[in-house]
Every structure is written in structure tokens, then in C-alpha cells.
Amino acid sequence: MAPRLPACCWRQHLPSSSSLRSSSQPLVSSVQRTSFFSTTSAPQVKYGWSTLPKRARPTRFNQVTSGLPAPTTGPAAALKRREQSTPVRAGVLAIKKGMTAFMGFTGTRIPCTVLQLDRVQTVLNKTRESHGYWAVQVGFGERNPGNVGAPMLGYYEAKGIPPKQKLAEFRVRDEKGLLPIGVQLLPDWFYIGQRVDVRSNSRGQGFAGGMKRHGFSGQEASHGNSKNHRTIGSNGPSQGGGSRVLPGKKMPGRMGNERVTVQNLPILMIDNELGIVVVKGAVAGPKGCVVKIQDACKKPPPPPEHIEKTLKQLKERFPEAEKHLQAAREKHLELKEARRQKRIEEMLGKSWEPTKEQTEMVKRALAMEEGAGQGEITV
Amino acid sequence: MIQLKTMLNCIDNSGAAIVECAMVVGQKRHASIGDRIVVVVQKQRGAQAEGMSASGTGAKVKRGDIRHAVVVRTRQKVTRRDGSCIKFDDNACVLINKAGDPIGSRINGVVGQELRKKKWSRILSMAPMQA
Amino acid sequence: MNVAAPLARRPLGCLKASLRQVRQQRGFFRQMASAVSTTTAAPSTPAAEPALDFYKQIDRKTKKLRTAFAVYPTALAAGSPAVPTATTDPVPALHKAQIAKLDPTGVRTAMFAKTRDAAKVGDVLMVTHRRGGEPFAGVLLSIRRAGIDSAILLRNTLGKVGVEMWYKIYNRNVAGIEIVKRRKKRARRARLTYMRQPKHDMGSVEELVFAWKKSRQVFSTSKGGAKKAAAAKRK
Fold it and tell me: Is C88 in contact with A332 (Cβ distance < 8 A)?
């Protein structure tokens, strides 16, 4: 089937277009996108010629103005499609500390998991413009700088953040979910009773057969079966069926140590002093594994009052965040330049604390440079 | 965890001594205390144990009968809401008819309290003790 | 380093210009250094800028400084001086708080603590429920110590059938736990699971309980207290 032309193409072929326009004003009004300056070059002989009517010549494709429906594929469409299932806010990283129970007043026992937050800081905001999606990168814990490579040391230096043990990013719905950089997220980021999704890696089970790994039935114990009691059997059809193993065929292999999401766990307790979030039920993985906690994607987001409150708290706890980041960036640029010039040793030498005459000298030099610098910039 | 082929003690006076699970009623993998199962009577109570009166009155069920039953004790631990667990040393059941009324008139032996939650109060009231 | 001051004073908007300025100043800097023939000291950093720790990467062969990166302290970065860390295990603290709430008098904790007077495996205990019902008595097979989630395993024989019960000692449904009879000799196992075997099975403890109740009545009439029910507790 031939593609349908947009109305703006065929409408002009209609007879007595002027009379039609006058008779049915609202129908045409949608087409009338008149502008004083035409987007195309004027139809002069100088620019070539065409027998097509003026408006039928498409100049731009896939624009909103072209009359085509919005595309259903591509990054923008994908983001739009996932909008509802993307949480509004970023989450936090935590360590699984183990399971315990809460004893209710009616005698009920509620099994729960203790998750501990450790110096959770925001590290980076990812934006649609520069990265293609909205996300907040969050760091957890602290790492000995000796165990961090130079590129990452520079990264943290530019953020004004100590090297983190673990980095993870949390997709957020839009730019409203982005956070100031370097602020610390505490357990009160969540509230009691909130539903969260908890993601972590399950325990590794090693190499497992089909029965354990995928729940296959295995084979008979007798009836002539020989040495094939727990094997997986056929891999698929033979000639006619393609004579190949289809992609994704369940087979023996490494089991476990894969990301498991437990959805909609209610939060039973938060404690800023201990730095813990206690969720109801179990979470995948052994004690000491790192888990990601984020607002449940299948529940409505937290009430706006709570979101506002937490954002305000972040600002109150670290009002200097922006200033700090800016200073760190500047410092980073300066240090980077010094590293490039191999001047870093001088900067770190024991004369880091300058002597009196050095200070005097530097002051003089600075004053001179200041003048030169000013001149340079004004010119 | 009562499933196909599990042998259970029958602890009522219906005449069956040992029954075998033939089916778990409902979409269940295993039956626990208070669940309904279909059983085959494998062994009747011996005439010498019950005396002449038992054989005289006649057992209500015979060997090979297919009956419904309710599980009242399991070897598998059953966890309660308050975190306590109960575990018996055997699997036992009580025979019932299709309507859910017990076939026997007496129960001898302890039964689990989960029966109350699953609305088997009739059986519970017949039992001499519950745990 | 002498470029820091002008840089810090200007907004980042004119960063390009500032960098150009840095490049321009570099030559001047070298000149000055060579003239004085000393390592040029950095001017003191602006007051707002705190002292940073530097991580130095040393070349293994030459033992010389290869490069260095600034490492910011956590408290400075997070903006708050009191930053909770994961060095403390929160679970014991959590248990302590919960136990304080559920067992304010401390009797439950004391009963299964590792002390002389506490109940031990092999003792015969009786558990009373909050919502009435028959109290369950049995020999204590094991104690599972897990803070607020601590539990005990009792075994008894009821009508020729062995029955085992786990009880959470801090649960509100457990109204009281009483020691009916202490084991004469200390058990040499932590868990007396062998008592499930017919050879070692203790059988019914009903007689012990009956005798204990009787003795308690005798004592209560005469003295007003039971010697062996010292650990009894009611809520």
C-alpha cells in the first residue's frame, strides 16, 4: 500500500481551493501554518523548478510540523514508553546486614531484612541532553585511594568527593528527579510504610544441571535408562526443525549470582543514627552484599510533600553543595594542568607551607600577574 | 508434606488403620495440617485389637475403599503466625465423607491447631487434645 | 599554583579566558622560578578552601612521585560532620532496642542467658500461652540465640505421638516459661537431637509436670513461693 500523503500535500489539488477555504473554515485552519518567511527558498527559476504545488514539496522530515505521527521507535519513544515505570526519585545503595524479625503487639512475627547505608552520596546527574536519559549516579562507602585508578581518582577529585566503594546509577523519570551533587542520602530519604524495590545479586550456586537450574524433570530411574537420570534430554527438533539449537535454550550452567529484584517491599523502620533501612521480607544475596533500594515502580510515587521534605533536608544538611562542587571543579582543573606539566611535585613539596620571603616574592609576582592577567582579559 | 503415595495413620474409629494418599484436593503440591486429601484404605484395624465388638458392629470402611480425609498431623514443621513451629513424629489423618463430616465418631490422639483456622472445628472438638 | 587565586575569584563562565591566562602565565612562572633558583612555593590557599589530603602515586622503579590527586574527606563532602558509617553493626543495636521494648524486666533474656541459673538444654520447661489453651510442657532440646528472634525447642509425647514445638521467647503470645525440672547432670551437647531416637526418648513429661504442680501447691500454701519456679514470669 502506498503511504498516505499528508493533507497538506493533496489538499492543494482540490478544485477552487479558495472557495473551499472560505466555505469550511475550521477544516482548513489546521493546515494554515502561514508565516511571513517561508522555510523553503522562493520558487524562482534560479533555484530550479518543480511541477508539484508549492506546499507539497517536503523540506523537512519527521518534524512535528510535518503532519506525521510521532515515531513509535527510537530513544525518545522508548523514554516515553517507560515513563510510568520509571521512579520519580533516585534511590540509595546499601549493604545487606542480615535478617531478623519484628514482634508485633498482637503476637505476629514479621521477618525483615536490615539494610545499612554507608556514606551514600550523589556523584553525577545524567541528563537527556548529554547522556540520553535522566539518572542519578550514587556512590556508597569509601575506598582506599590506593585501590583506585588514576582516571577515577581524577573523577572523584573533580566532584569533591572521596573515592567511593561502589557506584550505581538510578534512572529517574525526568529532570525533577535530579539531585545536587555531593549531598548525602540518609535513611529518611524513605518513609515508614513506603513500598520499595530492592535489587541485588543472588548467591552464586556454581555450575548446576538442568534439573536444579531450570527445574527440568530429569529422566526415568529404570525402563532401560542408562546413565542419563539427571541429564536434560533433547536440545530441540532435528531435520525440519532447523537442525539447530535455538537461542536461549535452557541448559546447564552457572546458576545464581544474577540480579534479582524483589518488588514492593514495605519499609518497617528507618534510623538515621544507625543508618539503617529495615524492609519486610527477604532480599536476595548473602550478608554483606550491596543492594539498590528505590521507590517501587509498580506503586504510585511517594506523596509530593515527602519528596519536597526530603529535598529540603538535603539542602539544609549541605547548603554549600553547589559552591563546594564549583570549588572542586576549579581545583581539579588547576591540578590537572599541574599534572600535565609535571609540576605536581613542586606543589606537594615540603614547601607547601611557604617561607616568609617566598610568600613575599609570590605576592609580588601575583600582583604583577594580576595586572597582566587583567590586561589580557580586557583585551 | 503429604503427597501421592504418602502413608498416613488414621486416628479415628472408622476402622481404617493405615491409609495411602491418592490425591491432594485443590491446586496444591503438598497437603499440610487441615488440608483435604483423597486416600485409599490400606489396612483395617485388626479384629484382635478392637475385639469382637468392632467386628460385630463392622468397620465403616474396608480395605481398598477410597475416601476423603483431613490431615491432622504432619512430620513436616508447620509455622504459625507468631513464629512458633509444630512438628509431630508421624503423619495422621481423619476420614471424612464427601460432605466433610467425619466418618468415625471418636478421635484418639493429638491433632494440630491449624484445623481451627481451616474450619474443621467438628474434628477439633472430637479430638482429646490439640497442640 | 599562583594561578589559583585569580581562578577562584572568577566565575566558571570565563573559564576559557582564565585558562588562556594560565597558559600565558606559565612562561612567567618558569622565568621567575629559574631566577630565584628555589622551588617556588604555592601561595596560601584561599580561606574558604579547606586543606586537602593528597594521594600520591609513587613510581615503583624510580621511587619518584609520579602524580597526585586530591582526596576529599567525607564529612567535608557530605556537608555534615556526623556521618554515619558502616563500621558499626546495626543488628545488635536493633535487637537491644527491640528486647528492651518487649522484655522490659529482662526476665526472658535472663532465663536463656549463658549463666548458671538460666535454663539449659535437658531441662523440662512449660510454656504458657497468652490466649489461654493448654500449656505446653516438654524437654528443652535446643536454644537458638538470635537476639529478638531467639527461640527454644521443646519435645514431649502426647498420646503416644512425639510433638516438638519451637517457641519464640520474646513473642507476646508466650505469656510465661517455667522450669519444671532441671537436668541432674549438665548436657554435653548443645542440641539434644538424639533424644528423638526411641533409645533416648524421654517419653511423656506429664508426670513430672503433675508432680511439680503438686509440689508448688504444697509450697505455696506453706511458704507462699515455689522454689523451683524462680524463673516463672507472668505478664
Answer: no
Q: Under an 8 A CB cutoff, do B131 and C136 touch?
A: yes
With respect to CATH, is domain B7-130 assigned 2.40.150.20? Answer: yes
B94 neighbors B11 (Cβ within 8 angstroms)? yes
Question: What does the block give as the cell for C90?
Answer: 546495626
C24-83 confidence digits (pLDDT tens):
554 444 433 333 333 333 343 333 445 578 888 888 888 788 888 988 887 766 665 555
Smallest CA–CA distance from B127 into chain C, residue = C159
What does each C-alpha distance from C98 to A46, A195, A268, C152 come to in angstroms? 88, 23, 13, 18
Q: Is residue C55 part of a domain?
A: no
**Which residue carries 577529585 as its cell?**
A157
Cell of A198: 530492592
Residue with cell 517507560: A82
- Cβ within 8 Å of B, A 79-118: 101, 103, 107-109
pTM of the model: 0.76
Q: Write the DSSP assignment of A44-91 as a string of letters.
A: -GGG---SS-GGGS--SSS-GGGTPPPPSSSHHHHHHHTTTTS-SS--
pLDDT in tens, A298-327: 999 999 999 999 999 999 988 889 999 999
Q: Residue C142 is part of which domain span?
A: 105-222
Q: Is residue C129 part of a domain?
A: yes
* Locus of grid cell 472408622: B14
Instruction: Provide the number of structural domains found in chain C.
Output: 2
C165 chain-B contacts, CB cut-off 8 A: 84-87, 131
Q: Tell me the C-alpha distance between C163 and C158, whole Å.
A: 7
Binary contact (C161, B109; C-beta < 8 A): yes
Question: What does CATH list as the number for A86-206+253-347?
Answer: 2.40.30.10
C115 and C42 within one domain: no
Question: Does the beta-carbon distance from C173 to B82 stay under 8 Å?
Answer: yes
